[in-house]
Design brief:
334 residues; Rossmann fold; 7-stranded parallel sheet; alpha/beta; 2 domains
Length: 334
């Protein structure tokens, strides 16, 4: 298979250029003939090229095609490589058309894992409230940090043991902590491999010093983290969310944090990230909000493209490919 035609999709020019730098595009040109960035405004200009494409690449801002559009524009497409994480919002029509979809979720999971583990360690040291209040409320800052448990012998709860949750569990093997986890899809055998103890969601919130969310992005999980669960949290415990903002009842979390000032939340995602001020969490002194930075940024974005280009090379040369998203996996993935 030589010099295949490769379509490049991306509605968001800025996001696309971050992932597909000139260095990355040069690597793709070695695999085949590539298009320019295709979006809804210029797709008809590339109609003839698209009809001949066997492979496609995309990232954040992928066009949402219908099955009919896929058959019309890309009748010969065989594989789609997505240089980012979740494919939930666009993958199903491609899978229904028999097109294989691959995601760089593993590459995007690397910085999320690094971010999460670092936040867990800092939370166990009382860093967040300690640092935030040290200059203005020295007595409170010292009292808070002196009452935190530290990393030795602490209990860490992971909600969801998908790609990222499992990666976090692997990293936590390096620490003297007990890891407890809630994931109804994980077997006891897999849990032993990860050195985690499976338990109920209520037990995670009741017993753990830090709880970290890694659930899949599913509509039925909206507000799964509710007042009942937040009411179970220990004193000086921390809730970390790098998953999805919709999974958290923000008012319930805010009330819990106001009622128990020793509790902390570290959230990288909100229900409305364009207007964070609308969230009650924005106004809580014991909440740390980061602007959705856990995933790939800066040079880390090229890692996602490199993962996918490597799989295209394997595909072209008849070697085993990794990171494929099937319909079955789509049901459980973030």
């Amino acid at each position: 298979m030589v010099n295949i035609k490769i379509a490049l999709f991306g509605e968001n020019e800025i996001a696309f250029s971050k992932v597909y730098s000139e260095t990355v595009l040069e690597k793709l040109r070695k695999q085949g003939e590539i298009s320019e960035r295709i979006d809804r405004t210029n797709i008809n200009e590339h109609k003839e090229f698209l009809k001949q494409c066997e492979a496609a690449f995309a990232t954040w801002g992928m066009i949402r095609f219908t099955e009919e559009e896929i058959k019309e524009y890309m009748p010969n497409l065989k594989v789609l490589f997505y240089s980012a994480g979740t494919v939930q919002y666009f993958a199903e029509p491609f899978l229904n058309c028999g097109i294989r979809v691959f995601s760089a979720f593993a590459a995007n999971g690397v910085p999320v894992t690094e971010y999460t583990v670092s936040q867990i360690v800092l939370a166990l040291k009382g860093y967040f409230q300690g640092a935030k209040r040290y200059k203005s409320f020295l007595r409170y800052s010292l009292a808070h940090t002196q009452n935190c448990i530290g990393a030795y012998g602490a209990k860490v709860g992971l909600v969801g043991l998908g790609a990222i949750g499992s990666s976090v569990a692997e990293k936590l093997k390096e620490y003297d902590v007990k890891v407890m986890a809630y994931d109804p899809f994980v077997s006891e055998e897999r849990a032993r491999e990860l050195n985690v103890t499976l338990c109920s969601l209520e037990t995670v919130f009741k017993e753990c010093d830090v709880i970290s969310n890694h659930l899949a992005n599913k509509k039925e999980l909206k507000n799964i983290f509710n007042a009942k669960l937040f009411g179970l949290m220990k004193r000086h415990s921390t809730f970390i969310n790098t998953g999805r903002g919709d999974q958290v009842d923000e008012f319930a979390l805010a009330l819990s944090l106001h009622a128990h000032p020793s509790r902390t939340a570290v959230v990288d995602v909100l229900k409305n990230e364009k207007f964070p001020y609308s969230s009650p969490l924005f106004w809580c002194p014991n909440v740390i909000i980061t602007p959705h930075i856990a995933g790939s940024l800066g040079n880390e974005t090229e890692r996602m493209a490199d993962y996918m280009i490597a799989q295209l090379d394997n595909y072209i040369n008849g070697k085993p490919v990794k990171y494929e998203v099937t319909k079955e996996k789509l049901e459980r993935m973030a």
